[in-house]
Structure formats: structure tokens, C-alpha cells
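Re: that chain you flagged

S.,

Sorry for the slow reply, it's been a week of failed gels. I finally had a moment to sit down with the sequence you sent. For the record, here it is as I used it:
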Amino acid sequence: MSDPAQMFAPDGPLAAAIPGFRARPQQIEMAQRIAEAIKGHRVLVAEAGTGTG
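Prediction finished late last night. Pasting the C-alpha cells below so you have them in one place:
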């Protein structure tokens, strides 16, 4: 799965595995930024607010 947004989609693997799962836009944004940092071999410092994940 190359697009992190697919992981958080309503019909994605997290929704299938976790009863009551709800994606939050902040989770998707953070996952995308992490994926970009990994692909680009860059360092990422991230802070997640309460409820982000």
C-alpha cells in the first residue's frame, strides 16, 4: 500500500481491523508526511495533538 491515505480510508485495513475506527484528517496528514520523509531519506520531527492517534 503506497498511499498512506488508503490505510486510513473508511474501507481500508485499519477500518477492517479496528471496530469503530474513524480516520482523522490529522492522522492522514501525519502519515503522509512520515511516508514522504522515509521515501526522501529525511529526518522528520512531528508532534501529535491529543486524539491524533
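What I noticed first: The longest helix spans residues 25-39.

Talk soon,
D.
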